[in-house]
Amino acid sequence: MVKKDLSIKVDELKTSTALFKNLQITIGRVEEEWEEPLGPTPMPSMTMLRDWDLKLLQRYKPLYLPFCDLCCLCTFGKCDLTKGKRGACGLDMSAQQSRIVLLACCIGAATHCNHARELVDFLVEKYGRDTPLDLGGQVNLEAPNIRLVCGIKPKTLGDLEYVLDYVEEQITALLSATHIGQEGSPIDFESKVFHTGMLDHVAMEVADIAQIVAYGFPKGDPEAPLVSLGFGTVDTTKPVILVIGHNVIPATYIVDYLNLTGLMGEVEVCGLCCTAHDTVRYNPSAKIVGPISWELRFIRTGIPDVIVVDEQCIRADILNEAKKIGAPLVAASEKACHGLINMTDWDAEKIVSTLAEGKEPGGLILDPEKVGEVAVKLAMKLAPQRENVKGLPSKEELVRYASSCRQCGMCRRACPNSLPIPEGMRLAANGDLSKLAEIYDYCIACGRCEHSCPASLPIFNMIDKAAEYKLKSETFKIRSGRGPIQDTEIRNVGRPIVLGEIPGIIAFVGCANYAQGGQELVEMAEEFLKRRFIVVVSGCAAMTIGMYKNEEGKTLYELYPGDFDAGCLVNVGSCVSNAHISGAAIKIANIFAKRNLRANYREIADYILNRVGAVGIAWGAMSQKAASIASGFWRLGVPVIVGPHGAKYRRMLLGRKDKEEDWYVYDARTGKKVYVGPVPEHLFYAAETKEEAMVMAAKLCMRANDTTKGRAIKLTHYVDLYKKYFGRLPDDLHLFVRREADIPITMKDEIVKELERRGWKESDIPDPTLLEELVRVRKVES
Amino acid sequence: MRAESWQIAEIPGPTKAVILERPKAIAQIIKRNRTVMAIGSEIFRMKEDTTHIRLLLELSRLAGAHVAVTGATLRRFREMGCEKIYAISAFELADRLEDPEWPGFDGSGNYSLLVMAGFKYYYGWLILSGIKHYSDIKTISLDPYYQPHASYSLPTMALDKWESFLRSMVESLKR
After folding, report:
1. Domain A88-219+478-659+681-702 and domain A228-345+357-382 have a common topology
2. Contact in structure between A525 and A478 (CB atoms under 8 Å)
3. pLDDT tens profile A558-581
4. ipTM score here?
5. N or C end: fewer C-beta atoms under 10 angstroms in chain A?
6. Are A565 and A492 in contact (CB under 8 A)?
7. Which one is the CATH code of A228-345+357-382: 3.30.420.40, 3.40.50.150, 3.40.33.10, 3.40.50.2030?
């Protein structure tokens, strides 16, 4: 990339007037001296890490799954790309699919980057550029992604501006590569996808550490408070302000205004999606209603008196929904104005009266402090008037609606999960609401059923009404997002992770687009917690995991500690907190293995790929942000599994365990190429069922560097889960056993018999690397 | 029969599956090819009983097709008494099928026909699309929903009619 700064070092400079020794001139940003040497890839351009990407893509080849046969991105088209045909621009189907993936990732990364930019600009303005990035005494390695990618050690909020300059420039360049007549190779598109993902993690890290230090969020605290989660935790006798989105700034002002005016406790502040996560990190007395799929569900009940939206994951029809329940909408971000009048410069009282009297359905207020005042005043004023607002139909109305259902089946055909709504309607017409209530558990609350109904039945409201008793009983506890992983925690678990004695790190991340309901996520998380994996969670997935209780009425957050350790459940926080998950993997390479971090991306990614048994499971991944987050993990060598709907990201990155030649690495000790087996087997994989995902996750935790003890532990979990769902030993078991000592003792007899049947032979356990430059003996085989 | 996607918004493009309505003809296509039948996990959710599953397995046996079950359902099939079946994930199978050098489950070479049943609509949609674009293998969707990305598909039909259709296919091979 083009650097804006200039640094010149001269040992000796003699002029006609003077002799200068050790002269250093720096123009622009001054980088503090740092004991760690600058690595080979500071602020890499699009192609600087291409060689690393190509190594990954050689092993994990894209499997493209086009939605349709066409490209319709320019006026040449539509172009038919079926079976090798090329479009008018020359692009073929593979390049088109990878281009769409890149576009999605650019959207995702740009979203986090701009979120970070807004936060940093605002917080610099409010608290000053020199505000130190103090993440607490236990977090000295404050920004592993930034150090790794940018090669700088940020000290202040102001330093983060410099980081964002770089990320913004790169995202623009990446987006430009998707224009017609630019990139033509699918593999190069894929490399750019990886680059975008890497930048996304930098941007997310900027956003989260900025808000943690400025707002006093928990700083890597394993005992971050347990906070209220669920529809039923909202006290509907009080005025209710609902905040939706991802950018916490307006919500902090709502909380501040309540504190300032002594109204805290008089008004309920509750939230949906990541703004809710961050609002409770700011003030633990706020409530989380639920993940994104509770948006329509909660609003349709009529409970919110005021709805405040900031950015990301807000329904595009939020204004219509707010109008239906007579709640004013306050839009607080330039990115989501929703057609509202800009009231930013209006007097707060004038805004309140205009909205309270219904003269306008909502207002755009781009001054977050004013949003705080307006939202509170509005809620206080409107709540008494809105006591009798009716959201859901009565049971009698529901039955009447159901009786007018024509059983055409369009709702089912529109439903992403093909739920049996017509059957629910048929039973409901006779007063039996059980089927509709059952549908609630699997409904992702998109509302497509209603739009498809030729009789205009309020299908979604009917489902909600049938399950009203479930909605009201949703009272849970979730641990507030703790932010980064402590350096000391990494010191404690680094060795057992790298040696394989902790069987793996499983990160449940992403949205709530579940194919079979959210409970599957809880079952998976519990399975891995019981097996003493480290389970890390964020975003909507973190909320879903908190939305189920055991027989004693406790959620997983109440049952498992919040440390980054075996058998613990770590909620890092909102979407942007995902950077702490990649950050933890990076920290292991640095803190435990003493690998240089600074601008040393290839080596660290190679380390993680071969040694850190981490896997992401984005079971309900839906958004473009989820795509870019995943791609950042891929470049670091961390595989990601998505749920069935995730297949719609249109391509997988799959390894071929049957192709032995794909699984050779260098032994860094000797330079020899050594077969290590298919570890990890895939980089991006859509599982069909939770059972398949669990078996695959356990398998993907295996790494080339596992010690025999570690591999035996990992095999125990893989074989045990496989047998549970397949009823026999895995047919690829022989590929993962390198030495007899790898075989779990409790399974020895049957595994030995299977290995004999396969003609298995022992193989070497190298010091694995894909990078020739890390070979210590300079005799590399071709 | 209308060539209309089951999920409303799924629009495929210019190359759409031919609708097959004659059970005997489909059964013969399956028999004449080197066929692998992929059965997805959704098969257990489609109906409360397992008659349709047994019919599919019987069809594959009579047609000499290999059966690959996906979605970690092998145990359930084994509990039904099925032993000669293969387990693989759906996308791994798609990936292998797109490789002309893949030796198949028995080492005798790749398949000429993929038959699919028991998949979530969109999941099957994507697999069939991938194979349509990236291989020469023909595909038949045996689910009771029209799948345009297949080479041949059943029309959308009710579950009881579908079961009768499967039974007719089986009977035609017994004759």
Report:
1. yes
2. no
3. 999 999 999 999 999 999 999 999
4. 0.97
5. C
6. yes
7. 3.40.50.2030
